[in-house]
């Protein structure tokens, strides 16, 4: 069933449409190989074709959509793509983390600590949205603190995809996740890059297993009705 979409604002239509389509593609509501017809998508969201083109261009840059002879099709195989995304992220983030450990100042890590503190406040309030935002910013901070502009740019196209995966996974125990992130940051601040990267590996492995379980359960239930955008 197509989830309700918030009322579209005059600005940022393309970004809003790309986010809704991104969720539908990753969740399987729009299956792999589906033709994404601009006219149908424009009708679905009651917008002109301009913001639809912007949205599809963005999804193509993320690898969720591919161009076949000037027609765009969904390109997301579920679990195999999840494995690929996480392997790519681990390699990018490990490099960013090593550089950040080497280059970042204590002030830079203090800013990351404030993100963990924000996660703790969100956990106490049961605020999943705020928690997820701080969680994603925690990891994105490694790229910023790495001082490597092109590495940060390499991560940027996949950040929205991982935001959707994080939202779908719906962290079952936010307080435990806060402890996990605090311990992670404590290791990072020791300056032991090898230990930090090992912790990152275990951290991402746990996250990948959780989202894989979520996707497998969703597939087993098979209660969703594919969205018609062909």
From TrEMBL:
Keywords, comma-separated and alphabetical: DNA-binding, Transcription, Transcription regulation
- PROSITE patterns per the record? HTH_GNTR (PS50949)
- Classification via PANTHER family: GNTR FAMILY REGULATORY PROTEIN, TRANSCRIPTIONAL REGULATOR, GNTR FAMILY
| Protein name in UniProt | GntR family transcriptional regulator of gluconate operon
Q: Which intervals hold domain HTH gntR-type?
A: 11-77
InterPro entries per record: GntR_C, TF_FadR/GntR_C, Tscrpt_reg_HTH_GntR, WH-like_DNA-bd_sf, WH_DNA-bd_sf
SUPFAM superfamilies cross-referenced by the UniProt entry: GntR ligand-binding domain-like (SSF48008), Winged helix' DNA-binding domain (SSF46785)
What Pfam family is a match, any one?
FCD
């Amino acid at each position: 069933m197509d989830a309700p979409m918030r009322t579209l604002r005059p600005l940022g239509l393309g970004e809003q449409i790309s986010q809704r389509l991104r969720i539908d593609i990753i969740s399987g509501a729009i299956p792999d190989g589906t033709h994404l017809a601009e006219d149908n998508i424009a009708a679905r969201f009651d917008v002109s074709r301009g913001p639809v083109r912007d949205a599809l261009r963005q999804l193509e840059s993320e690898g969720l959509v591919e161009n076949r002879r000037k027609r765009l099709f969904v390109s997301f195989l579920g679990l195999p793509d999840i494995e690929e995304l996480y392997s790519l992220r681990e390699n990018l983030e490990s490099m960013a983390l090593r550089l950040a450990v080497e280059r970042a100042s204590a002030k830079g890590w203090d800013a990351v600590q404030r993100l963990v503190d924000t996660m703790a406040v969100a956990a106490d309030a049961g605020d999943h949205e705020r928690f997820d935002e701080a969680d994603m910013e925690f990891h994105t901070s490694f790229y910023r603190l790495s001082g490597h502009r092109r590495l940060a740019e390499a991560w940027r196209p996949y950040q929205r995809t991982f935001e959707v995966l994080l939202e779908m996974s719906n962290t079952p125990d936010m307080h435990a996740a806060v402890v996990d992130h605090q311990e992670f940051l404590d290791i990072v601040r020791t300056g032991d890059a090898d230990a930090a990267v090992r912790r990152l590996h275990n951290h991402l492995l746990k996250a990948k297993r959780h989202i894989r379980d979520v996707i497998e359960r969703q597939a087993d239930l098979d209660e969703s009705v594919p969205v018609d955008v062909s």
